[in-house]
Design goal:
Layout (H helix, E strand, L loop, with lengths): L1 E5 L8 H15 L3 E5 L26 H8 L2 H11 L6 E4 L10 H7 L4 E5 L12 E2 L2 E2 L10 H4 L7 H17 L7 E4 L2 H9 L7 E3 L19 E4 L8 H11 L3 E4 L5 H7 L1 H6 L2 E5 L3 H9 L3 E4 L9 H8 L4 E4 L14 E4 L4 H12 L2 H18 L2 H20 L2
Parallel strand pairs: 1-2, 1-3, 3-4, 4-7, 7-8, 9-10, 9-12, 10-11, 12-13, 13-14
Antiparallel strand pairs: 5-6
Helix pairs in contact: 3-4, 8-13, 12-14
Length: about 400
């Protein structure tokens, strides 16, 4: 089977990129040809198809060309059409294509009669700012396609101009087929599917397929280290300020690995804690350095304050033999078994997080046991082989349905 795998980025950045590239490797290992189509970037992995990658718009530059390119990219449309003129494709698998590639690619796929599925890594299908968050609080106001409310509330960074652009992109994307041109949406958790159903996405177009993780890539370490660890994007919705304060109150050293909009702000606000070694900011880490950091931690904390669609960080921590303390929100409870592989706490509650940190670390034997339980849970429920079998069945079903219409 020839699969067109479409995403914005082709380099390590966040969970969506990890999944995008891991899925490519998994499909190739089972004999499929996988053709990536992404926005051109100097950080991309090399690919024999890279000459077809278009330049994406830059939302930060605010030039007229970039503003228009955020809504509709003629370059992406032309590049994809050119690629498909040179490659036979059985199915297109979309990920995060908006922003850089835009909905301009959807009519190209439809014109050629290519079946399309999309893995939903966020809530972009129903929310102009992707997160269902309005100034730090949960929001469902755009339910039913009332996207204009995103501009009324200035949901994009409090800026009317940015919010208007995000809303305009949503309406244009719908017209181009972001809902109707997709044959199947893959939700990465039951929680995500429930939210999308409530907000107007037809249940019959959605299938739940959890992400996967290859435990063979992770050497577990059940010994208890001497620091709490957070790794991921440094964003406010990730609950990082709740975690920093909880670690301070619990008297624990906190190591934070990642990059994002709040990194410099944390450096300024927490300068004293950084000087004292109570807070360590490593910046973005990948590969073995990150794996070593995880293995040597006491536990991993995921303090999210938005509805995480899955919880890949939790799965990676569990594969590394680490107990996980996570917010009881979104898809995280589908990954972490409370009291068995770690603890869940009330999102945004410093007091509850402090209590869970103290409860876990008061008993090193419990920490190790939960780490071992987590490793077993990942092996059983989130294996690559199981994921491939389910994905292959979905591919066959979508292709078969497309041929019969």
């Amino acid at each position: 089977m020839n699969i067109l795998n479409i995403h914005q980025k082709y380099y390590a950045f966040g969970g969506a990129e990890k999944y995008f590239m891991s899925l490519e490797a998994l499909l190739k290992s089972h004999g499929h040809q996988v053709i990536p189509f992404v926005a051109r970037d100097d950080r991309n992995r090399p690919s024999p198809w890279q000459d077809y990658f278009p330049w994406g718009s830059d939302f930060e530059r605010k030039s007229l060309q970039d503003i228009l390119g955020f809504i509709y990219s003629p370059a992406a449309s032309r590049s994809l059409d050119s690629l498909l003129g040179h490659a036979a494709v059985d199915l297109a698998h979309l990920h995060i294509y908006y922003g850089k590639l835009t909905g301009s690619i959807l009519p190209v796929l439809k014109k050629r009669g290519i079946p399309v599925i999309q893995t939903l890594h966020d809530y972009k299908l129903v929310c102009p700012v992707y997160s269902l968050q309005r100034h730090g609080t949960d929001c469902r106001d755009c339910s039913g396609g009332h996207f204009y409310r995103g501009a009324m509330h200035r949901c994009n960074r409090g800026s009317l101009s940015r919010s208007l652009l995000s809303v305009a992109e949503m309406y244009v994307a719908r017209l181009l087929g972001s809902m109707d041109s997709i044959d199947r949406f893959l939700c990465v958790s039951h929680a995500q599917k429930r939210i999308l159903c409530d907000m107007g996405v037809p249940a019959g177009k959605m299938t739940v397929l959890h992400n996967f993780i290859d435990v063979q890539e992770f050497q577990p370490e059940y010994a208890v280290g001497d620091y709490l660890l957070y790794f991921g994007r440094m964003e406010r919705v990730k609950g990082i300020y709740t975690l920093i304060e909880a670690a301070r109150q619990a008297g624990q050293t906190l190591v934070m690995a990642g990059d994002g909009a709040e990194l410099e702000n944390i450096r300024q606000l927490e300068a004293a804690a950084i000087r004292d070694g109570r807070l360590v900011l490593t910046g973005m880490l990948t590969g073995q350095p990150l794996k070593d950091l995880v293995r040597n931690a006491a536990c991993v904390v995921i303090p999210s304050e938005w509805g995480e669609t899955f919880g890949l960080v939790a799965a990676e921590a569990m594969a590394s033999g680490k107990a996980v303390i996570a917010a009881n929100i979104g898809g995280l409870p589908e990954v972490i078994e409370d009291g068995v592989t770690g603890y869940l706490f009330e999102p945004g509650s410093v007091d509850d997080l402090v209590a869970k940190i103290r409860q876990l670390l008061s008993d090193p034997e419990r920490v190790s046991s939960m780490g071992a339980n987590g490793r077993l849970r990942v092996e059983k429920h989130f294996s690559p082989q199981s994921h491939y079998e389910k994905m292959n069945s979905i591919y066959a079903d979508v292709i078969g349905s497309s041929r019969n219409t």
